[in-house]
Design goal:
Radius of gyration: 24 Å
Bound molecules: ligand LLP
Number of strands: 21
CATH topology of the largest domain: TIM Barrel
CATH superfamily of the largest domain: Alanine racemase
CATH class of the largest domain: Alpha Beta
Largest sheet: 9 strands, mixed
Number of helices: 13
Helix content: 25-40%
Distance between the termini: 67 Å
Shape: globular
Strand content: 15-25%
């Protein structure tokens, strides 16, 4: 089994006090000490998935693992993953600045995105970002101009749309033909001609594609690789350019609920490496450097969110609702994608799961339901609910809806917990508000 196939962080267990613990830290103590909602990250699980990826790809000599920061981006995680040998896929000035401030080697950073701004490109060049994955003609033009202004030649990949549909939520498919991302295969020649003939400040290194996210099928990676390698060989024949890098994107799924059966990192790696070796032979090209960009599978399983249970409501002849002190602003995935989660009560992990309940959020929307139906023990106000698999796309998509402060995040390992993101304060909430003088003067 690989780490992404586990429903819970690897270090979770019931301790002598009869509470759940992760990384040797009692979750009820964490809730008391740091308050709730609280994101908790298990270092052991993160290091374990990193090892899985490294072991799984060890048979391919040239692999660049780029963690997709959009899944969760903060300085402590960047530092930890850089130490594990990962580079970073970033998509904004904010993500670039975060990894830079964490002391990451910027040559191991790859800048993705379909509408990078002038300022973001400028910052990326100034800070020495190693690769740009260029998404469209507009970007080619401005990137060349900005690189020229810096008297630099920047290394680029071309992002292409391979025309592959994967069976995941429509919003997180990206490789299908009418996707907003990347060059259509019919546009690649025009882009390559522009780079070779006119855009002297761009150096084309290879091709990039990303099919989608929360992927459970392994065969589509083989289809993607065949398309990328065939294209590299065609460009060599037609233009005599040797591209020696391919980026197959991210996407490996995780297990949110028992019925989810994601493939392991080892299955994915085997499919990718076999497909690469076959295509290399078929199209007679040298083995390229392989980039992979996993996000969710690196960080999802390591993360849980702790909530305190508050009010409840029994709908006559209907559902029993229990409300927690967080919801759609700290985890947008259920309301956005209909995502499912599983949970346990941290202070009652061994009690009978006697009741089927609905876990509601505290935000002012009927759609703010975290878990539609789950069997839990008899619940009381003050119980601590631990929702599993919230490491990816929870904090990174969090908002201040209803002007609620974003939660804190702690990293746990060896019975120690450390704050890695502070809880926002009420002063943080109003920190960017301004009142025009005119309104102040009219104060009655
Ligand atoms: N590379 C590119 C170019 C991407 O667009 C993405 C994700 C990744 C890598 C990482 O994919 P992963 O390994 O995490 O599946 N907010 C959605 C997921 C959006 C994914 C967007 N792109 C969710 O919560 O499910």
């Amino acid at each position: 089994m690989s780490t992404n196939q586990s429903l819970k962080p690897l270090s979770v267990k019931v301790n002598e006090q009869g509470n759940l613990e992760i990384g040797g830290c009692d979750l009820v103590d964490l809730a008391n000490n740091y308050n709730t909602p609280l994101y908790v990250l298990d270092e052991l699980t993160i290091r374990s998935i990193c090892k899985d990826y490294k072991d799984a790809f060890e048979n391919y000599p040239k692999v660049n693992m780029m963690y997709a920061s959009k899944a969760l981006c903060c300085m402590a995680l960047a530092k930890l993953l850089a130490g594990e040998g990962f580079g970073f896929d970033v998509v904004s000035a904010g993500e670039i600045y975060t990894v830079y401030k964490a002391g990451v080697d910027m040559s191991k950073v790859l800048f993705n995105g379909n509408n990078k701004s002038f300022e973001e490109i400028n910052l990326a060049i100034e800070l020495g970002v190693g690769r740009f994955s260029v998404d469209n003609f507009f970007e080619l033009t401005i990137l060349n101009e900005i690189a020229a202004a810096h008297h630099k030649q920047v290394d680029i990949l071309l992002r292409i749309t391979p025309g592959i549909e994967c069976h995941t939520h429509e919003y997180i498919q990206t490789g299908h033909l009418d996707s907003k991302f990347g060059f259509d295969l019919t546009q690649v020649d025009e882009a390559v001609e522009l780079i070779v003939e006119q855009y002297k400040n761009l150096k084309l290194r290879g091709l990039h594609a990303h099919i989608g996210s929360q992927i459970f099928e392994t065969n589509i990676y083989a289809d993607e690789i065949e398309i990328l390698i065939k294209e590299i060989s065609r460009l060599d024949e037609k233009y005599g350019i040797k591209l020696d890098e391919i980026n197959v994107g991210g996407g490996l799924g995780v297990k949110y609920v028992e019925s989810d059966l994601p493939p392991s990192t080892f299955d994915i790696a085997e499919k990718i490496i076999n497909a690469l070796n076959q295509s290399i032979q078929k199209y007679k090209i040298d083995p390229p450097i392989l980039y992979i960009e996993p996000g969710r599978s690196i960080i999802s399983t390591a993360g849980v969110t702790l909530y305190t249970l508050g009010s409840s409501k029994q709908v006559p002849r209907g559902k029993k609702y229990f409300a927690v002190d967080g919801g759609m602003a700290d985890n947008a995935r259920p309301s956005m994608y209909g995502a499912e989660y599983c949970a346990q009560v941290a202070n009652k992990p061994n009690n009978d799961l006697a009741h089927t309940v609905t876990i509601a959020g505290r935000f002012c929307e009927s759609g703010d339901i975290l878990i539609k139906s789950i069997n839990l023990p008899e619940l009381e106000e003050g119980d601590i609910l631990c929702v599993y698999n919230t490491g990816a796309y929870n904090y990174s998509m969090a908002s201040n809806y209803n002007r609620v402060q974003k939660p804190a995040m702690v990293l746990v390992a060896d019975s120690e917990s450390e704050l890695i993101i502070k809880r926002e304060s009420l002063d943080d909430i109003v920190a960017h508000d301004l009142i025009p003088d005119r309104l102040m003067k009219n104060d009655k």
